[in-house]
Design goal:
The protein has one helix and 40 strands. With 474 residues, it is mainly beta. The chain folds into two domains: 108 residues, Beta-1,3-xylanase, CBM31 domain (Immunoglobulin-like, Sandwich); 314 residues, Methylamine Dehydrogenase, Chain H (7 Propeller), CATH 2.130.10.10. The strands form nine sheets. It has a nine-stranded antiparallel beta sheet with strand order 2-3-4-7-6-5-8-9-10, with no helix packed on it. Strands 11-12-40-39-38 form a five-stranded antiparallel beta sheet, with no helix packed on it. Strands 13-14-15-16 form a four-stranded antiparallel beta sheet, with no helix packed on it.
Length: 474
Protein backbone atom coordinates (compact mmCIF):
# COMPACT_ATOMS: atom_id res chain seq x y z
CA UNK A 1 0.00 0.00 0.00
CA UNK A 2 1.09 3.63 -0.33
CA UNK A 3 3.11 5.23 2.45
CA UNK A 4 1.23 5.99 5.65
CA UNK A 5 1.69 9.73 5.67
CA UNK A 6 0.01 10.65 2.46
CA UNK A 7 -0.54 14.20 1.23
CA UNK A 8 -4.03 15.30 0.29
CA UNK A 9 -5.39 13.02 -2.40
CA UNK A 10 -7.52 14.06 -5.31
CA UNK A 11 -8.83 12.78 -8.62
CA UNK A 12 -8.53 15.44 -11.25
CA UNK A 13 -7.89 14.46 -14.82
CA UNK A 14 -11.34 14.94 -16.25
CA UNK A 15 -14.17 17.42 -16.61
CA UNK A 16 -17.15 17.74 -18.86
CA UNK A 17 -16.73 19.78 -22.01
CA UNK A 18 -18.93 22.48 -23.56
CA UNK A 19 -22.21 21.45 -21.95
CA UNK A 20 -20.82 21.74 -18.42
CA UNK A 21 -19.70 25.19 -17.39
CA UNK A 22 -20.76 26.98 -20.58
CA UNK A 23 -23.82 28.80 -21.75
CA UNK A 24 -26.01 27.84 -24.71
CA UNK A 25 -23.58 29.42 -27.19
CA UNK A 26 -20.63 27.44 -25.77
CA UNK A 27 -19.17 30.60 -24.26
CA UNK A 28 -17.09 29.57 -21.26
CA UNK A 29 -18.25 30.29 -17.74
CA UNK A 30 -16.66 29.68 -14.37
CA UNK A 31 -17.78 26.54 -12.53
CA UNK A 32 -15.48 26.76 -9.50
CA UNK A 33 -17.08 27.97 -6.27
CA UNK A 34 -13.87 28.97 -4.45
CA UNK A 35 -11.52 31.85 -5.03
CA UNK A 36 -8.06 30.87 -6.24
CA UNK A 37 -5.17 31.06 -3.81
CA UNK A 38 -2.83 29.08 -1.52
CA UNK A 39 -4.59 26.25 0.28
CA UNK A 40 -7.29 25.86 -2.35
CA UNK A 41 -7.33 22.47 -4.09
CA UNK A 42 -9.38 22.98 -7.21
CA UNK A 43 -9.26 20.87 -10.35
CA UNK A 44 -12.70 21.77 -11.65
CA UNK A 45 -13.13 23.57 -14.98
CA UNK A 46 -13.22 27.37 -14.80
CA UNK A 47 -14.02 27.80 -18.49
CA UNK A 48 -16.14 24.78 -19.35
CA UNK A 49 -13.19 22.71 -20.54
CA UNK A 50 -11.14 19.70 -19.50
CA UNK A 51 -8.57 20.17 -16.73
CA UNK A 52 -5.21 18.43 -16.49
CA UNK A 53 -2.14 19.00 -14.35
CA UNK A 54 1.48 19.13 -15.51
CA UNK A 55 3.82 19.49 -12.56
CA UNK A 56 2.60 22.54 -10.66
CA UNK A 57 0.61 23.92 -13.61
CA UNK A 58 -3.04 23.45 -14.51
CA UNK A 59 -4.07 23.35 -18.18
CA UNK A 60 -7.72 23.70 -19.10
CA UNK A 61 -8.50 22.96 -22.76
CA UNK A 62 -11.70 23.47 -24.71
CA UNK A 63 -12.66 22.68 -28.31
CA UNK A 64 -15.62 24.07 -30.24
CA UNK A 65 -17.39 22.54 -33.26
CA UNK A 66 -16.11 25.35 -35.50
CA UNK A 67 -12.52 24.16 -34.90
CA UNK A 68 -11.47 26.78 -32.37
CA UNK A 69 -9.28 25.29 -29.62
CA UNK A 70 -8.32 27.18 -26.49
CA UNK A 71 -6.18 26.48 -23.44
CA UNK A 72 -6.02 28.43 -20.20
CA UNK A 73 -3.05 28.26 -17.82
CA UNK A 74 -3.07 28.55 -14.03
CA UNK A 75 -0.68 27.71 -11.23
CA UNK A 76 -1.02 24.99 -8.57
CA UNK A 77 -3.55 27.10 -6.68
CA UNK A 78 -5.50 27.91 -9.88
CA UNK A 79 -4.29 31.50 -10.02
CA UNK A 80 -4.46 32.49 -13.70
CA UNK A 81 -1.21 32.85 -15.64
CA UNK A 82 -1.02 35.38 -18.45
CA UNK A 83 -1.39 33.87 -21.90
CA UNK A 84 1.54 36.01 -23.02
CA UNK A 85 3.84 33.94 -20.76
CA UNK A 86 3.44 30.93 -23.05
CA UNK A 87 3.85 29.89 -26.65
CA UNK A 88 3.27 26.60 -28.41
CA UNK A 89 1.20 24.45 -30.70
CA UNK A 90 -1.72 22.06 -30.58
CA UNK A 91 -1.90 19.00 -32.83
CA UNK A 92 -5.39 17.71 -33.60
CA UNK A 93 -5.87 14.10 -34.68
CA UNK A 94 -8.43 14.38 -37.48
CA UNK A 95 -9.94 11.86 -39.87
CA UNK A 96 -7.99 13.43 -42.73
CA UNK A 97 -4.72 13.34 -40.78
CA UNK A 98 -2.99 15.19 -37.97
CA UNK A 99 -3.20 18.98 -38.08
CA UNK A 100 -0.59 21.02 -36.20
CA UNK A 101 -1.77 24.52 -35.33
CA UNK A 102 0.07 27.46 -33.75
CA UNK A 103 -1.34 28.85 -30.52
CA UNK A 104 -1.54 32.61 -30.04
CA UNK A 105 -2.48 34.71 -27.03
CA UNK A 106 -6.07 35.95 -27.17
CA UNK A 107 -6.98 37.74 -23.98
CA UNK A 108 -6.57 35.32 -21.08
CA UNK A 109 -6.18 32.23 -23.26
CA UNK A 110 -4.02 30.65 -25.94
CA UNK A 111 -6.07 30.02 -29.05
CA UNK A 112 -5.80 28.15 -32.34
CA UNK A 113 -8.23 27.91 -35.24
CA UNK A 114 -8.49 24.70 -37.22
CA UNK A 115 -11.03 23.06 -39.51
CA UNK A 116 -14.56 22.39 -38.30
CA UNK A 117 -14.70 19.27 -36.15
CA UNK A 118 -16.98 16.65 -37.60
CA UNK A 119 -16.85 14.09 -34.80
CA UNK A 120 -18.10 14.32 -31.25
CA UNK A 121 -14.58 14.30 -29.82
CA UNK A 122 -11.03 15.05 -30.85
CA UNK A 123 -7.63 14.07 -29.48
CA UNK A 124 -5.41 17.11 -28.98
CA UNK A 125 -1.71 17.21 -28.11
CA UNK A 126 -0.48 20.48 -26.59
CA UNK A 127 3.23 21.32 -26.74
CA UNK A 128 3.88 24.52 -24.82
CA UNK A 129 6.68 26.63 -23.46
CA UNK A 130 5.48 28.31 -20.26
CA UNK A 131 7.94 30.79 -18.84
CA UNK A 132 10.67 28.92 -20.70
CA UNK A 133 9.56 25.53 -19.31
CA UNK A 134 8.46 22.80 -21.72
CA UNK A 135 4.98 21.43 -21.00
CA UNK A 136 3.22 18.70 -23.00
CA UNK A 137 -0.15 17.05 -22.45
CA UNK A 138 -2.67 14.99 -24.38
CA UNK A 139 -6.40 15.67 -24.12
CA UNK A 140 -9.59 14.08 -25.36
CA UNK A 141 -11.86 17.06 -26.00
CA UNK A 142 -15.54 17.02 -26.85
CA UNK A 143 -16.47 19.18 -29.80
CA UNK A 144 -20.19 19.16 -29.02
CA UNK A 145 -22.50 19.23 -26.05
CA UNK A 146 -22.62 16.48 -23.44
CA UNK A 147 -20.24 13.87 -22.09
CA UNK A 148 -16.80 14.17 -20.53
CA UNK A 149 -13.24 14.46 -21.77
CA UNK A 150 -9.89 13.39 -20.37
CA UNK A 151 -6.45 14.86 -19.78
CA UNK A 152 -3.01 13.35 -19.34
CA UNK A 153 -4.06 9.71 -19.74
CA UNK A 154 -2.71 7.44 -22.53
CA UNK A 155 -5.34 8.53 -25.05
CA UNK A 156 -4.22 6.06 -27.73
CA UNK A 157 -5.04 3.10 -25.55
CA UNK A 158 -3.24 -0.12 -24.80
CA UNK A 159 -0.14 -0.72 -26.91
CA UNK A 160 0.60 -4.31 -27.95
CA UNK A 161 4.01 -5.71 -27.06
CA UNK A 162 6.13 -7.45 -29.64
CA UNK A 163 5.88 -11.21 -29.34
CA UNK A 164 9.04 -13.04 -28.30
CA UNK A 165 8.97 -16.75 -29.18
CA UNK A 166 9.94 -18.90 -26.24
CA UNK A 167 9.80 -15.97 -23.81
CA UNK A 168 7.96 -16.11 -20.50
CA UNK A 169 4.35 -14.97 -20.31
CA UNK A 170 4.10 -11.24 -21.04
CA UNK A 171 1.26 -8.69 -21.07
CA UNK A 172 -0.68 -8.64 -24.32
CA UNK A 173 -0.64 -4.83 -24.15
CA UNK A 174 0.31 -1.98 -21.82
CA UNK A 175 -0.81 1.54 -20.95
CA UNK A 176 1.75 4.22 -20.02
CA UNK A 177 0.35 6.85 -17.65
CA UNK A 178 3.78 8.37 -16.91
CA UNK A 179 2.52 8.90 -13.34
CA UNK A 180 2.45 6.32 -10.53
CA UNK A 181 -0.61 4.09 -10.56
CA UNK A 182 -2.00 3.62 -7.05
CA UNK A 183 -5.24 1.64 -7.44
CA UNK A 184 -6.87 -0.59 -10.07
CA UNK A 185 -10.41 -1.95 -9.79
CA UNK A 186 -12.73 -3.80 -12.16
CA UNK A 187 -16.47 -3.85 -12.67
CA UNK A 188 -18.33 -7.13 -12.13
CA UNK A 189 -18.12 -9.15 -15.31
CA UNK A 190 -14.83 -7.49 -16.25
CA UNK A 191 -16.10 -5.01 -18.87
CA UNK A 192 -14.17 -2.07 -17.43
CA UNK A 193 -10.96 -1.48 -15.49
CA UNK A 194 -10.79 1.63 -13.32
CA UNK A 195 -7.28 3.06 -12.97
CA UNK A 196 -6.21 5.73 -10.48
CA UNK A 197 -2.90 7.50 -11.13
CA UNK A 198 -1.13 10.29 -9.27
CA UNK A 199 -2.30 13.72 -10.50
CA UNK A 200 -4.42 12.06 -13.20
CA UNK A 201 -7.51 11.01 -11.27
CA UNK A 202 -9.51 7.90 -12.18
CA UNK A 203 -10.14 6.73 -15.73
CA UNK A 204 -12.19 3.79 -17.06
CA UNK A 205 -10.84 1.43 -19.74
CA UNK A 206 -12.76 -1.02 -21.90
CA UNK A 207 -11.57 -4.59 -21.65
CA UNK A 208 -10.03 -6.67 -23.08
CA UNK A 209 -8.85 -4.07 -25.64
CA UNK A 210 -7.69 -1.49 -23.09
CA UNK A 211 -9.32 1.49 -24.83
CA UNK A 212 -10.33 4.65 -22.98
CA UNK A 213 -14.03 4.70 -22.10
CA UNK A 214 -14.18 7.84 -19.96
CA UNK A 215 -12.63 9.46 -16.94
CA UNK A 216 -14.17 10.50 -13.66
CA UNK A 217 -15.06 14.14 -13.08
CA UNK A 218 -13.05 16.10 -10.53
CA UNK A 219 -14.52 16.45 -7.05
CA UNK A 220 -15.65 19.83 -5.72
CA UNK A 221 -12.80 22.16 -4.74
CA UNK A 222 -11.85 22.35 -1.09
CA UNK A 223 -9.45 24.19 1.21
CA UNK A 224 -6.67 22.44 3.11
CA UNK A 225 -6.12 24.52 6.27
CA UNK A 226 -2.84 25.32 7.97
CA UNK A 227 0.75 25.04 6.74
CA UNK A 228 0.12 21.69 5.04
CA UNK A 229 -2.31 23.34 2.66
CA UNK A 230 0.34 25.80 1.51
CA UNK A 231 2.70 23.11 0.19
CA UNK A 232 2.19 21.85 -3.37
CA UNK A 233 2.21 18.08 -3.51
CA UNK A 234 1.22 15.17 -5.75
CA UNK A 235 -2.35 13.92 -5.33
CA UNK A 236 -3.74 10.43 -5.80
CA UNK A 237 -6.46 8.00 -4.84
CA UNK A 238 -5.61 5.73 -1.91
CA UNK A 239 -8.29 3.09 -2.45
CA UNK A 240 -11.39 2.39 -4.51
CA UNK A 241 -14.39 0.05 -4.23
CA UNK A 242 -16.95 -0.87 -6.88
CA UNK A 243 -20.59 -1.47 -5.96
CA UNK A 244 -21.84 -5.06 -6.28
CA UNK A 245 -24.05 -4.14 -9.25
CA UNK A 246 -21.14 -2.40 -11.00
CA UNK A 247 -23.00 0.88 -11.30
CA UNK A 248 -20.98 2.99 -8.92
CA UNK A 249 -17.52 3.34 -7.43
CA UNK A 250 -16.34 4.96 -4.21
CA UNK A 251 -12.94 6.63 -4.39
CA UNK A 252 -10.92 7.46 -1.26
CA UNK A 253 -9.21 10.83 -1.71
CA UNK A 254 -7.50 12.45 1.27
CA UNK A 255 -10.21 12.62 3.95
CA UNK A 256 -12.95 12.32 1.34
CA UNK A 257 -15.20 9.54 0.11
CA UNK A 258 -16.50 10.29 -3.38
CA UNK A 259 -19.24 8.19 -4.96
CA UNK A 260 -19.22 8.14 -8.77
CA UNK A 261 -21.61 6.86 -11.41
CA UNK A 262 -19.38 4.65 -13.54
CA UNK A 263 -21.48 4.88 -16.73
CA UNK A 264 -21.01 8.66 -16.97
CA UNK A 265 -17.99 9.33 -14.74
CA UNK A 266 -20.06 11.92 -12.93
CA UNK A 267 -19.84 12.58 -9.20
CA UNK A 268 -23.02 11.26 -7.61
CA UNK A 269 -22.26 12.47 -4.11
CA UNK A 270 -19.54 13.24 -1.61
CA UNK A 271 -20.09 11.05 1.44
CA UNK A 272 -19.43 11.87 5.06
CA UNK A 273 -16.10 10.28 5.99
CA UNK A 274 -14.14 9.50 9.16
CA UNK A 275 -11.65 12.14 10.23
CA UNK A 276 -8.20 11.75 8.74
CA UNK A 277 -6.81 10.41 5.50
CA UNK A 278 -8.95 7.51 4.30
CA UNK A 279 -6.84 4.36 4.06
CA UNK A 280 -9.07 1.50 2.87
CA UNK A 281 -12.66 1.05 1.75
CA UNK A 282 -14.81 -2.01 0.99
CA UNK A 283 -18.39 -2.21 -0.32
CA UNK A 284 -20.83 -4.64 1.31
CA UNK A 285 -22.30 -7.45 -0.84
CA UNK A 286 -25.82 -6.02 -0.51
CA UNK A 287 -24.62 -2.59 -1.63
CA UNK A 288 -26.01 -0.84 1.46
CA UNK A 289 -22.87 -0.09 3.47
CA UNK A 290 -19.17 0.67 3.26
CA UNK A 291 -16.38 -0.34 5.61
CA UNK A 292 -13.75 2.38 5.95
CA UNK A 293 -10.47 2.90 7.79
CA UNK A 294 -8.42 6.06 8.16
CA UNK A 295 -4.79 6.60 9.14
CA UNK A 296 -4.23 7.11 12.90
CA UNK A 297 -7.78 5.88 13.64
CA UNK A 298 -8.08 2.78 15.83
CA UNK A 299 -11.40 1.62 14.36
CA UNK A 300 -12.99 0.62 11.09
CA UNK A 301 -16.20 2.52 10.42
CA UNK A 302 -19.35 0.96 9.02
CA UNK A 303 -21.18 3.68 7.10
CA UNK A 304 -24.19 3.93 4.82
CA UNK A 305 -23.22 3.86 1.17
CA UNK A 306 -25.95 6.35 0.42
CA UNK A 307 -24.59 9.24 2.50
CA UNK A 308 -21.69 8.06 4.69
CA UNK A 309 -23.73 8.15 7.91
CA UNK A 310 -21.93 6.05 10.52
CA UNK A 311 -23.71 2.89 11.66
CA UNK A 312 -21.02 1.30 13.81
CA UNK A 313 -17.34 0.85 14.60
CA UNK A 314 -14.99 -2.12 14.81
CA UNK A 315 -11.97 -1.37 17.05
CA UNK A 316 -8.54 -2.91 16.37
CA UNK A 317 -5.04 -2.59 17.76
CA UNK A 318 -3.53 0.87 17.43
CA UNK A 319 -4.78 1.74 13.92
CA UNK A 320 -7.10 0.30 11.30
CA UNK A 321 -5.59 -0.94 8.03
CA UNK A 322 -7.17 -3.31 5.48
CA UNK A 323 -10.87 -4.19 5.45
CA UNK A 324 -13.06 -6.83 3.80
CA UNK A 325 -16.64 -8.09 3.85
CA UNK A 326 -17.50 -11.79 3.83
CA UNK A 327 -19.52 -12.76 0.72
CA UNK A 328 -22.74 -13.12 2.77
CA UNK A 329 -22.19 -9.71 4.39
CA UNK A 330 -22.54 -11.18 7.89
CA UNK A 331 -18.86 -10.91 8.86
CA UNK A 332 -16.10 -8.35 8.38
CA UNK A 333 -12.34 -8.56 8.70
CA UNK A 334 -10.39 -5.54 9.91
CA UNK A 335 -6.61 -5.47 9.83
CA UNK A 336 -4.50 -3.46 12.24
CA UNK A 337 -1.30 -1.51 11.87
CA UNK A 338 0.37 -4.06 14.15
CA UNK A 339 -0.51 -6.97 11.87
CA UNK A 340 -3.39 -8.65 13.67
CA UNK A 341 -6.77 -9.18 12.01
CA UNK A 342 -10.05 -8.90 13.92
CA UNK A 343 -13.06 -10.91 12.71
CA UNK A 344 -16.38 -9.33 13.66
CA UNK A 345 -19.95 -10.51 13.17
CA UNK A 346 -21.53 -7.53 11.42
CA UNK A 347 -23.64 -6.48 14.42
CA UNK A 348 -21.15 -7.27 17.18
CA UNK A 349 -19.22 -4.93 19.45
CA UNK A 350 -16.39 -7.38 20.04
CA UNK A 351 -14.54 -9.65 17.61
CA UNK A 352 -15.31 -13.36 17.44
CA UNK A 353 -11.62 -14.02 16.73
CA UNK A 354 -8.39 -12.06 16.52
CA UNK A 355 -5.81 -13.55 14.16
CA UNK A 356 -2.20 -12.97 15.12
CA UNK A 357 0.01 -12.09 12.20
CA UNK A 358 3.65 -11.30 11.42
CA UNK A 359 4.90 -7.78 12.16
CA UNK A 360 3.75 -5.10 9.77
CA UNK A 361 0.36 -3.69 8.82
CA UNK A 362 -2.44 -6.07 7.89
CA UNK A 363 -3.35 -3.88 4.92
CA UNK A 364 -4.37 -6.52 2.37
CA UNK A 365 -7.42 -8.69 3.10
CA UNK A 366 -9.82 -10.62 0.86
CA UNK A 367 -12.65 -13.09 1.39
CA UNK A 368 -12.98 -15.72 -1.36
CA UNK A 369 -14.39 -19.25 -1.61
CA UNK A 370 -15.19 -19.46 2.09
CA UNK A 371 -11.66 -18.43 3.05
CA UNK A 372 -9.99 -15.26 4.34
CA UNK A 373 -6.76 -14.30 2.59
CA UNK A 374 -4.13 -11.95 3.96
CA UNK A 375 -0.98 -10.55 2.39
CA UNK A 376 1.94 -9.57 4.56
CA UNK A 377 5.15 -7.56 4.42
CA UNK A 378 7.05 -10.86 4.20
CA UNK A 379 5.42 -11.59 0.84
CA UNK A 380 3.63 -14.72 2.02
CA UNK A 381 -0.02 -15.29 1.11
CA UNK A 382 -1.84 -16.65 4.17
CA UNK A 383 -5.14 -18.51 4.06
CA UNK A 384 -7.39 -18.56 7.12
CA UNK A 385 -10.63 -20.23 8.12
CA UNK A 386 -12.90 -17.23 8.83
CA UNK A 387 -15.06 -19.33 11.15
CA UNK A 388 -12.26 -20.16 13.57
CA UNK A 389 -9.44 -17.84 12.59
CA UNK A 390 -7.17 -20.85 12.12
CA UNK A 391 -4.36 -20.77 9.57
CA UNK A 392 -5.17 -23.13 6.69
CA UNK A 393 -2.16 -22.59 4.43
CA UNK A 394 0.77 -20.29 3.83
CA UNK A 395 2.49 -19.51 0.54
CA UNK A 396 6.21 -18.95 0.03
CA UNK A 397 7.82 -15.71 1.23
CA UNK A 398 8.86 -12.88 -1.06
CA UNK A 399 8.67 -9.12 -1.16
CA UNK A 400 5.72 -7.43 0.50
CA UNK A 401 2.20 -7.95 -0.86
CA UNK A 402 0.38 -4.73 -1.78
CA UNK A 403 -2.92 -6.00 -3.31
CA UNK A 404 -4.93 -9.17 -3.82
CA UNK A 405 -7.43 -10.00 -6.57
CA UNK A 406 -9.52 -13.17 -6.95
CA UNK A 407 -10.15 -14.85 -10.28
CA UNK A 408 -13.67 -15.71 -11.47
CA UNK A 409 -14.73 -18.88 -9.71
CA UNK A 410 -12.52 -18.16 -6.71
CA UNK A 411 -10.01 -20.95 -7.31
CA UNK A 412 -7.10 -18.60 -8.02
CA UNK A 413 -5.87 -15.40 -6.44
CA UNK A 414 -3.32 -12.89 -7.74
CA UNK A 415 -0.99 -11.01 -5.41
CA UNK A 416 0.92 -7.84 -6.29
CA UNK A 417 4.37 -7.40 -4.77
CA UNK A 418 6.84 -4.66 -3.95
CA UNK A 419 9.44 -6.00 -6.40
CA UNK A 420 7.02 -5.61 -9.34
CA UNK A 421 6.09 -9.28 -9.62
CA UNK A 422 2.56 -10.64 -9.68
CA UNK A 423 1.99 -14.15 -8.36
CA UNK A 424 -0.99 -16.33 -9.23
CA UNK A 425 -1.74 -18.87 -6.50
CA UNK A 426 -4.18 -21.78 -6.31
CA UNK A 427 -6.53 -22.05 -3.36
CA UNK A 428 -6.87 -23.36 -0.76
CA UNK A 429 -3.17 -24.32 -0.43
CA UNK A 430 -1.72 -20.98 -1.65
CA UNK A 431 0.36 -22.88 -4.21
CA UNK A 432 2.04 -20.54 -6.70
CA UNK A 433 1.09 -21.64 -10.23
CA UNK A 434 2.51 -18.68 -12.16
CA UNK A 435 4.68 -15.63 -11.59
CA UNK A 436 4.12 -12.70 -13.94
CA UNK A 437 7.37 -10.77 -14.23
CA UNK A 438 7.24 -7.65 -16.38
CA UNK A 439 6.94 -4.67 -14.06
CA UNK A 440 10.19 -3.21 -12.75
CA UNK A 441 8.63 -1.10 -10.00
CA UNK A 442 6.28 -1.70 -7.08
CA UNK A 443 2.82 -2.85 -8.18
CA UNK A 444 0.06 -1.07 -6.24
CA UNK A 445 -2.90 -1.68 -8.55
CA UNK A 446 -4.37 -5.12 -9.26
CA UNK A 447 -7.75 -6.35 -10.51
CA UNK A 448 -9.03 -9.55 -12.09
CA UNK A 449 -11.52 -8.88 -14.90
CA UNK A 450 -12.80 -12.11 -16.44
CA UNK A 451 -9.91 -13.67 -18.41
CA UNK A 452 -7.81 -10.49 -18.04
CA UNK A 453 -5.60 -9.56 -15.09
CA UNK A 454 -4.81 -5.83 -14.83
CA UNK A 455 -1.75 -4.65 -12.88
CA UNK A 456 -0.40 -1.12 -12.40
CA UNK A 457 2.94 0.04 -11.01
CA UNK A 458 4.54 3.15 -9.53
CA UNK A 459 6.33 3.88 -12.81
CA UNK A 460 2.90 4.50 -14.35
CA UNK A 461 2.71 1.30 -16.38
CA UNK A 462 -0.49 -0.73 -16.54
CA UNK A 463 -0.28 -4.26 -17.94
CA UNK A 464 -3.15 -6.32 -19.33
CA UNK A 465 -2.45 -10.03 -19.01
CA UNK A 466 -4.42 -12.71 -20.82
CA UNK A 467 -4.72 -15.40 -18.16
CA UNK A 468 -7.88 -17.18 -19.26
CA UNK A 469 -5.88 -20.38 -19.66
CA UNK A 470 -4.94 -20.33 -15.99
CA UNK A 471 -8.57 -19.91 -14.97
CA UNK A 472 -9.70 -22.67 -17.35
CA UNK A 473 -7.22 -25.11 -15.82
CA UNK A 474 -8.97 -24.71 -12.48
Amino acid sequence: MPARRLPPLLALAVAAACSRGVDSTCTSTTTSTLASGPGVHDHTPHHGGVVGMAGDLHLEALAAPDGRVRVWLSDFWRRPLPATSATGTVTLELAQGDRRLPLAAAGDTLEANGPALDGSEVTAHFALSVGGKAVEMDFVLLAGAGGAGAAGVPVHGCVALAARPGAARAPHCTLDFAHPVTVVAATPGGALALVAAVDLGVSAWRLPAGQLALAFAPPPPFVVPGPEGLQPHPESANDMAVSPDGGEAVVALEGRLLRYTIRTGGLARELAAPRGVVRSVAWSPDGATLLVTAFYDASAHLVRAEDGHELGRFPVEREGAGVAFAPDGKQVAVGSELGSVALYPIGADTPSHVIAAPPGPASVLLFVSGLLLGGGNDGALRVFDPGSGALVAEGPPGTGITRLAAAPGGHLVASAHNDGSVRVSALPRATVVATLAWHTRQVLGLAWAGPVLVSGDTAGHVALWEVGDLVAER
